[in-house]
Write a structure and sequence with these properties.
mainly alpha; 4 helices
Length: about 150
């Protein structure tokens, strides 16, 4: 007598097993090392972008006032937003990968780090936009002693 076929549970995930035949030990360690490092990109890039935008933006105000141009500040803002976007993409990738990894405790830690990275990216992007928008209404030389 044959056993009845068991239908796969859609909520059950198959364990993730690395393909040892394709990866050498060094390649696997390098890959797993990057997977462990990537959630930290969201934590580090976004605050660094905001600090860069704020620090360099304030430092260049006198030079912008003397030169009469604003394009370097717009370029600085684009670089800072690109850094935030890179951190955001790394955090989203870590969040996506957190669904696949085992053991469950490691997945929860990866998910928490990815979500905090997303929140830091959103806060830094909000800060950069808040600093950038007034440049369209307030002249760069307002309040700068000559």
């Amino acid at each position: 007598m044959s056993r009845p076929r068991r239908h796969p549970d859609p909520h059950e995930r198959a364990p993730r097993v690395p393909e040892a035949s394709r990866w050498s030990g060094r390649d696997l360690a390098r890959s797993e090392g990057f997977e462990a490092f990537s959630p930290w990109l969201g934590w580090g890039l976004a605050p660094a972008a905001w600090a860069l935008h704020q620090g360099v933006g304030y430092a260049m105000t006198g030079w912008l006032c003397d030169s009469g141009t604003r394009w370097p500040y717009h370029t600085l803002t684009l670089v800072a937003v690109a850094m935030c976007a890179a951190g955001l993409m790394a955090a989203l990738e870590a969040l996506r990968r957190a669904r696949r990894i085992r053991p469950r405790r490691s997945a929860a830690r990866m998910r928490m780090m990815a979500l905090v990275g997303l929140m830091l990216c959103a806060a830094a992007l909000g800060g950069i936009v808040t600093e950038y928008l007034p440049t369209f209404w307030i002249h760069a030389c307002t309040g700068v002693p000559r």
